[in-house]
UniProtKB/TrEMBL annotation:
It comes from the Bacteria. SUPFAM superfamilies: FAD/NAD(P)-binding domain (SSF51905). It comes from Gloeocapsopsis crepidinum LEGE 06123. Coiled coil: none annotated. Keywords: Oxidoreductase. Gene3D superfamilies: FAD/NAD(P)-binding domain. Pfam families: FAD_binding_3. This is FAD-dependent oxidoreductase. Residues 2-333 form the FAD-binding domain.
Length: 397
């Protein structure tokens, strides 16, 4: 019998599984999907996430898989540059780095598989939890029942573990929809990978070169978009009309490479309680994050470190005491999650204000040479805690 069952092989689940098995804890990791190549997985590792990987001694794995650092961030409003900030933002710091998350997860599972007390079950979903006064295991879709001292749900924003444990998710008001596109690379990005935030009229999107070499574009779907997005066949022209000339030319030249979009319904929120006796939620299962400034993967890695710090001593000595440490994990992680979501909300509110006001967009664009510096400094102030982490966190086990 495993000591720990982890449901969901995303960044939180896989890194925590590896941390535990390296310290002698028996772990079964369960993943419903048959592979990690789903259409969208977050790529952005902020300095806080890179620091977490360094503490976990996982940076060498990063070097063996597709990855690349961002060179800069640039905000463009009505086809005019508002400001640009080069990476890394901090003197002597680490630049935001894009990583192929499927390759990253596969490499970590391969590393964990070298331990005889690690089991990976892929392509089989968890249907329910097993209870005996507390959670004692999971029921799989193939009919198997698996028992453990602790079940950890890291199965994302639509967590089945959270639902079966009757743990409430309180959604925040700034949920929204994004259409996610992939298209052909541009020589412009090969020489310098800039993350562009582009706003023109009421259309807003982010654009960057992914770790695997194509361009990714996240387009915020306006609530009053005048047609069914599924039937739009001229996306390249929509993007070109909102872009400066050099980028508009790329969209039009490679219009036939724009893949059909995938709808991402962004749910942002937190569970007031992350645990039940015998069960713990981490990552997006406990606190789904906005995609703004790529916090999901970074918070997940930091969740794994905090959980390992509390769980390893307990599971190594007296597993019957594990329920007592679960509230401590939430207490340690919750302040940072709350602050990060507040900072993300501030970013979203500013973007929404610009999207709603044509006069404000015109003013910001027209006055860009005069207001560039104070706006840039304000943006930098908001980014620092989102990049570095709000609270100190060290791996101690």
């Amino acid at each position: 019998m495993a000591q720990v069952i982890i449901v969901g092989a995303g960044p939180a689940g896989v890194t925590l599984a590896l941390l535990l098995v390296k310290r002698g804890i028996r772990v079964t990791l369960i993943e419903a999907s048959r592979n990690f190549r789903r259409t969208f997985r977050g790529e952005g590792l902020m300095p806080s996430g890179l620091d977490a990987l360094e503490q976990m001694e996982l940076l060498p794995i990063l070097e063996r898989i597709p990855h690349q650092a961002l060179d800069a961030w640039e905000v463009i409003i009505n086809k005019r540059s508002l400001f640009r900030v080069d990476e890394p933002l901090e003197p002597g710091g680490k630049p935001c780095t894009l990583v192929s998350q499927p390759a990253f997860l596969e490499a970590l599972i391969d590393a964990a598989s070298h331990y005889s007390h690690f089991e990976f079950i892929q392509g089989t979903a968890v249907q329910d939890l097993l209870w005996d006064q507390r959670v004692v295991g999971v029921k799989l879709s193939d009919g198997r029942n698996l028992n453990a001292d602790l079940v950890i749900g890291t199965d994302g924003r639509n967590s089945i573990v959270r639902q079966r444990a009757n743990l409430l998710l309180e959604q925040q008001s700034h949920s929204f929809d994004i259409l996610w596109f992939k298209l052909a690379d541009s020589p412009h990005f090969k020489s310098e990978n800039v993350f562009y935030s582009i706003l023109c009229d009421r259309y807003a999107f982010g654009l960057f070169r992914s770790s695997e070499g194509n361009l990714h574009l996240g387009w915020t779907l306006p609530k009053d978009f005048p047609q069914d997005w599924k039937h739009v066949d001229h996306w390249a022209e929509i993007f070109a009309a909102a872009s400066p000339p050099w980028l508009a030319e790329h969209f039009r030249t490679f219009a036939d490479t724009v893949e059909r979009p995938v709808l991402l319904s962004v749910v942002v929120g937190r569970c007031p309680r992350w645990y039940q006796p015998g069960l713990l939620l981490l990552g997006d299962a406990a606190h789904p994050m906005s995609p703004i400034r790529a916090q999901g993967i970074n918070m997940a890695l930091r969740d794994a470190i905090a959980a390992a710090n509390h769980l390893v001593p307990c599971l190594s000595q007296d597993a019957t005491a594990v329920d007592a440490v679960l509230p401590q994990i939430q207490s340690q992680r919750e302040p940072e999650i709350i602050k990060a979501q507040q900072l993300q909300s501030q970013e979203a509110a500013q973007a929404e204000l610009l999207e709603k006001s044509a006069f404000l967009r015109w003013g910001v664009s027209f006055l860009a040479p005069l207001i560039r510096t104070p706006i840039k400094l304000s943006w930098l102030h908001r980014q620092r805690k989102l990049r570095q982490g709000v609270t100190p966190l060290k791996l101690t086990v």
